[in-house]
Amino acid sequence: MHANVSVAGELKSRKKKKSTPETQFRLNLEQCSKTKDLPTAITLFNSATSGDGEIHLNQQHFNSLLYICSNAVTSQDQSQRHTAVEFGFRVFEFMRSKNITPSEATVTAVARLAAAKDDGDAAFELAKSVGGLGRLRTYSSALFCYCRNGMDEKAVQVEEHIVSLGLRLEESELAALLKVHVEKGKGDKVYEYMHKLRAAVRQVSESTADVMQSWFSAELASKVGLENLDMDQVNEAKLRNGGGWHGLGWLGKGNWVVQKSNVTSDGVCRACGGQLICVDIERAETEHFAESIASLALEREVQSNFKEFQDWMDECAEYEAIVDGANVGLYQQNFADGGFSISQLDAVVRELYARNKKWPLVILHQKRVKGLLENASSRETVQNWIDQDVLYGTPYGSNDDWYWLYAAVKLECMLVTNDEMRDHIFELLGSSLFFRWKERHQVKYSFLKGKPTFVMPPPYSLVIQESGTGSWHVPLAGDVDDESLRTWLCVNRSRTSDALPDRSTSKEPSEDCQHNGLNERCCNSDILAGTNNADEICDFKTTSVTDVSQEELNLSGNNQSPGKTLEKKIGDLGQSMEKGQSKESNQEVMTTESTRKGESTVKKLTEKEDKINAWENFDARVAKICPQKVEVEAEYWASSVISHVLGAHPPYRVMNAFYRHLWGHLGVDKVLLLPTGLFLIIFKSMHAREEALKLNIYHFGNGHPVIVKPWTVDEGINYKTVSSVPVWVQFPNLELKYWNPDSLSSIASILGTPIMTDDLTDSKKRVHYARVLIDMEIKQEVPDEVLFEDEKGVVQHQKVHYEWKPVVCKSYDGYGHDIMSCRKHKQPATLAPQPATKKKGEDTEWRKVEEKIGGVPVALSDTEPLKYCIEECGLQDLKQQGTLHTWCNKQIGSARIYAKLDRKMVNGDWVEQYNHSITIVLTEGISDHCPLMVQLEMEKKEGGLGIYDARTWNEAAILKQVWWLANEKENLWLRWMHEVYLKGKSIWEVDNKVDSSWSWKQIVKLRDKAKERFNGGNWKLSKNGIYSISSGYKWLQREGEKFSAAPVIWSRLNIPKHSFIAWLVWKGRVWTKDRLSHLNIPVQDPLCCLCEQQEESLDHLFFCCKFSKDLLSKIKAWLGLRRLSVQISK
């Protein structure tokens, strides 16, 4: 028995097991994988595959070796890259000779090796060999290889194949495709990939923005574009696409002007004055979204009830706002005398009617409506709603959420609710489509002294936007505390006469503006979901309830349709602008001409630096600036300097502290960030400014030069026009006889103009290297060593170390590094492969965008280091069940933030051993974090409870159908399958077609997964070749490590209840007092309740307690044992 095994014998056995060659090889290989030690890995592989002591290598070993090789191909050492490629292919060939089927991780690593040889064809063919198991990383190497070598057509083929597998390209892949088409000068493809980036990412990285800038700066870009396109056609296209883009192609012709700017809180670009908008989902997406909601509702509701609601909506529903009646009526009613507040709901209805003289639609459960009608105090109000078709009562037993959500989507109108819409039914809607719709259409509310105030959707969306004039606004990714500090690319044609005419702007709403409804904008703006011209959005600030007479509230008239035609909306726009023109204003810059149909054309005056007199072509007023006023204003800025850190872009808060620390003793008044990315420092006096400019030699961080120039009225500073900068240069191991100033100056003059030495060099207190400040030319050669002739006439070689290199990266014109060491130039696809595979569709698409709701968005640049670390470690998220977000700040209303901060990450070994394990997210308690529990669906012999996994059992049952089709059993179903899908072919030859049914796709998918286990029509895991579902289930589950105590715990002689308790004890899951204390659960008395002498624990309860000892002594006597362990683990 186990009790008779001595501790010394067990330790000896474990030590012997650890000293085996296989174990030692595995440990050494793991160490090589962590340190990326290629030479040692080669030595290990050679020793393991040569001689009589050949070690059996499994797939995990080969994956580790190939991972090391694929990581080494990114080395700067060309010989090491060559060695890594050759060794990697040798490992791969040896693996195939051992008949080991390559996994997705294997193919990904080898594809990266092939791409390192610039063999994109081989990389692509390898990637396709894994079939439906391929992931984006599997194909990325081939795509990057083609793009790097200018093979745009083959790169597009890879993209099409990736999309056909249901995978989504990410920013790095789309940016590579954009770049190769920019280099090829294919304007139409550049336009296509600009829109693909718009649809895939909300903000772009700096490197992607640089690719875009390179296109707009090219001469070809100025010649590509459509002219004289009908503005109504553009507006209709934008309306159809949600307002943020038209998709008709490049508009206008002429040179592009690219500026980096910021956007005001109202969405106005500071560079061009263009108005960004809150982008809606596309019209086709809206229809699909409404159909999806309806189909889900029909599955969960009584079909006749919801179908009746759909019919009613189609016939008579014309509303511009939907109100979640239950949410409004129960808002903040969680007090002693609280209940359903009809007054709150009535106040919201009145306010909505007062805004645009149109009734909203209130969705309320019929049971609630009946109760309100029975109450004398609320009967009149509710009856008035019913008479005006304001109220719709959802039937008994229904969920009113489906009704108000469908109505708001179907009518494309606003939804008034504070519901965060995070219930399980909304998780079924899933994709980012729902969250984009919610951002644009949800109106939240609060009450102040019984009067409602509305929080309207944001004035603009943080996405790439294309205007009706052909201009572009591209947000750059970054962590900013204030969105007004975010950097945007503003791209416009330099001559507006070549572009489409645009409507004029007005910084303030017209006094006569009557458009106060939820779905209207001010008279100088586009329609709510319309074009993205430089138009001002009506500022829906917090307003109180407008006093409305009872006569107005009882007006019955028909509601206006929210879906106005484009002509009607333009007509309203023209009429409103005619009213606004009746008032004289010095700020008016527009003229309107009403057409017979009420349409209006508005000309926009756009100021241009290269065309000062452009206003003469327009019938508009021009303001003249008084020179004396300019001089007065210039005096305020006279004590300022403009500064920039060359080769770095520190955030504002860092540079604010830097400048104040540097010049705080002189008196710094303000530190401001300019739209160009430069910093404006205002001193309290001119004397302080002159003192700051005296030295003019400053450095930031790791030697980055800080450029400082005085602010002037007529010119600013552009860091890209700087010709030379002071750089600290080190001369390591310089002989001491050359440390005199003249010798150092002679050596340093080879690189530039010597300025000074540092204090330690001057005082000779540090002799490891001499440090000299040299004024060096930008873009000059920076040699690693310099030559000088010594006193004997012998040429000496002296190494040079630059604390900052005055070089320009050819990849994106950045400073301080060359293209070889540029992080932006490196392809992310060459990072470490993950050894584990993941099923397509699991934990990929839904994670990225919606892991946080509310608060400040997480910048992609902040998450990249962790992302790379996770990939290098070969980790991935374990499948999760329950709510997505695991943390909440427990605030109320719009201040509430949800985020996924907790996750269970596993490696390839875990996935192989516990391939059906899941993470269960439990309900949060007193903590703001949700506890996570990992559930392992294991058999009893492996330490589990033996509960079958239904999903795996279903897969095993599908494999039964594969076996039937392979053996051509005669029955009606098989004949039908042969007739429809096989068509004379065997089950092993047919492909998975796009238009096939879902069930057939699952059959083919599992056929590929289990193909190696079939020998023709015979099942290899059974003696007679007949497939059984139980044998298929065991194979799919994959047996794990045996649990030694399982035969004792689950013996048939045991009582089931006792077996389960014993299993809990062996797993350490009994809620003893020491475990409760470890989990921070308060325990009044930690002592054992039996002996009250020691802390209660498992070992104490079963072995150390005096009651347990008495019981064990009797057991020993009964069984005749001389020794029994005193620990659960023994």
From TrEMBL:
Per its UniProt record, the required cofactor names are: Mg(2+)
The UniProt entry, under InterPro entries, shows: DUF4283 (IPR025558), Endo/exonu/phosph_ase_sf (IPR036691), PPR_rpt (IPR002885), PROP1-like_PPR_dom (IPR033443), PRORP_C (IPR031595), RVT-Znf (IPR026960), TPR-like_helical_dom_sf (IPR011990)
Q: Which UniProt keywords apply?
A: Hydrolase, Magnesium, Manganese, Metal-binding, Nuclease, Repeat, tRNA processing, Zinc
Say which enzyme class the record assigns. hydrolase
Q: Which reaction does it catalyse?
A: Endonucleolytic cleavage of RNA, removing 5'-extranucleotides from tRNA precursor
All residue ranges annotated as the DUF4283 domain in the record: 634-715
E.C. number, please?
3.1.26.5
PPR repeat locations:
135-169
Could you state one GO biological process linked to this protein? tRNA 5'-leader removal
Give the superkingdom in one word.
Answer: Eukaryota
Q: Which residues form the PRORP domain?
A: 264-490
Check the record and name the PROSITE patterns matching this protein: PPR
What are the Reverse transcriptase zinc-binding domain coordinates in residue numbering?
1027-1110
Q: Which Gene3D superfamilies match?
A: 3.40.50.11980, Endonuclease/exonuclease/phosphatase, Tetratricopeptide repeat domain
Give start and end of each PROP1-like PPR domain: 13-222
Q: Offer an example of a GO molecular function term for this protein.
A: ribonuclease P activity
Segment Disordered: which positions?
1-23, 576-602
The family this protein is said to belong to: Belongs to the PPR family. P subfamily.
Q: What is this protein called?
A: ribonuclease P
Q: What species does this protein belong to?
A: Oldenlandia corymbosa var. corymbosa
Taxonomic classification: Eukaryota, Viridiplantae, Streptophyta, Embryophyta, Tracheophyta
